[in-house]
Amino acid sequence: MHGYLNLHQEAFFGPTGLEYRRCGGYARIATRLRELRAQHPNHLLFDGGDTFHGTRPVVATEGGILPPILNELGIAAMTAHWEFAHGPARLRELVSQLNYPLLAANIYHEDSGELAYAPTLLLETAGLRVGIIGLACPIVDKTMPAHFSTGLRFTNGVAELPGHVQRLRNEERADVIILLSHCGFPQDVALLEDCPGIDVCLSSHTHNRLYKPFEAGGALVIQSGSHGSFLGQLTLTVEAGRVVSHTHELHEISESIAPDAALQTRIDAALEPFAALNETVGTTDTGLHRLTSVECPADDFLLASLQALVPADLYFSNGWRYGAPIAPGPVLLNDLYDLVPMDPEIQTAELTGAELHEMLEKNLEGTYSQNPLHQMGGYVKRTLGLKAYFKAENPKGSRLQAVFVQGKALDPARTYSAAFITSQGVPPKFGRNRQKTGQHIVAAMRTYLAQHRPLVVQPHDTFIVV
């Protein structure tokens, strides 16, 4: 969901380019759920995570705006990723307010070695015993800001999964086993191929819109887009402990769905303190999206805003997938926060050419690793001021073919200045002389929009796949 309480823009692939229309919102999801439950009285609903982060109201309340809304949906269980943005202690508070559990078989307390959350859940529906295994996103303590994982250790689930499958089958007598995972589609496929015995994988993290299930290791894998724009429905026929047939539909939560009146009233009341976000701050002729893994107009705009404010050789942001697109037309303040809801302070640092090369290779490995379990989530790092030619299919450490900074070949011994947002833009291990500028990125984007009416974004071609 990434925190989208109401209708928002979504982008769709069309024959001549991207097409935009409004989707989503919990009140419309509630209506669709009511219709589906009337048709299928034996049902279970799951949340794959990325729920308590992604929009300004959710970030400003550290997720507190959501539990009263989520508790109206009849969710059976969830797992997590960006939920840790407010710190592990805050997430425990939020989970205690929910009427369903957070499952994670791969998160441990560093001090005791004990699991931080329940790993599994056993439910009954249609006379069947359904075992659910949760796997949270394993990158939280590896690539996310340090405060996300204070006192916790995350694994990729490889060691844990087989034991839970065997226990649920043999001791808990589960007829069906579901993996509720926020590891990512390629990662889940790799896990399933090495761990037979799972019937269904409800995959998240990589924002795939799977219009039919993918089969891996005997399991049906579905993933249902992002931002709550879609609702995945998988209907199983089970005989003698075996899934013998299935149907699947990826429902678009379209604007034409009538919102549940009571829930919409609750949402509207919760959003009243954030009415100022509806201010129009500019206009754009370019659709601003993050649907492409190598450069995107949303972050080209973000980095151009940064460049206009802070002098540097290089500019960096993280390759985030989240953030509803901004369609051509008026731009609201809310739209800017959707791109970077935490409104981070702009920072500067100095990196050598050798460090820059290492940082880029590390990012490319995390995006395109030939081992899915080594992919660290997100897209290619968003940059301005450089041009890099690379081979995505090459082994780790050998993808970059040529790199240029400000039109000149990268010099490993030279020191370059960089401006960036968040530690994901320039990880702490790289560079020196880090400084805070006192400037924040939302204000920078707002100023840039005021100076460019309408906004037109041209590709920078910073990364070229060869």
TrEMBL record:
Residue ranges occupied by any 5'-Nucleotidase C-terminal domain in the UniProt entry: 281-419
GO CC, one annotated term: outer membrane-bounded periplasmic space
Pfam families according to UniProt: 5_nucleotid_C (PF02872)
GO molecular function, one term: hydrolase activity
Entries under InterPro entries matching the protein: 5'-Nucleotdase_C, 5'-Nucleotdase_C_sf, 5_nucleotidase/apyrase, Metallo-depent_PP-like
GO biological process, one term: nucleotide catabolic process
Keywords from the named record: Hydrolase, Nucleotide-binding
Annotated family: Belongs to the 5'-nucleotidase family.
Descriptive protein name: Bifunctional metallophosphatase/5'-nucleotidase
Organism listed in the record: Hymenobacter rubripertinctus
